[in-house]
Amino acid sequence: MTLKIVSLKVDPVMKDQAVVVLSSLGVSFSEFMRMALIHLIERGELPFDRVDSGVRVGRQKIEQSVAN
């Protein structure tokens, strides 16, 4: 199987904090991303509770943003 490279843009401080936590759990950042994708595919749900990231997605949120 050929692997595909996925790029992710994230705040550098947030990534550094995530790496520290993941390292303490014995998991690399890449392993965590693969685990999250496997969970999403196998269970059809996010592997965590949804939080407001401040990023507006979807037509409804875009329309709300334009209206304000």
Concise description?
This protein is mostly helical and 68 residues long. Helix content is 56%, strand content 0%. The mean pLDDT is 84.
Secondary-structure element order, N to C? HHH
Anisotropy-based shape: globular
Helix content: 55-70%
Distance between the termini: 47 Å
Work out the helix count: 3
In the CATH scheme, the class of the domain at 9-49 would be Mainly Alpha
Secondary-structure-based class equals mainly alpha
> In total, how many beta strands?
0
Low-confidence stretches: none
Biggest sheet statistics: none
On the 0 to 100 scale, the average pLDDT is 84
In terms of DSSP E residues, the strand content is under 5%
What is the CATH topology descriptor of the domain at 9-49?
A: Arc Repressor Mutant
Radius of gyration: 15 Å
CATH homologous superfamily identity of the domain at 9-49: Met repressor-like
Named CATH architecture of the domain at 9-49: Orthogonal Bundle
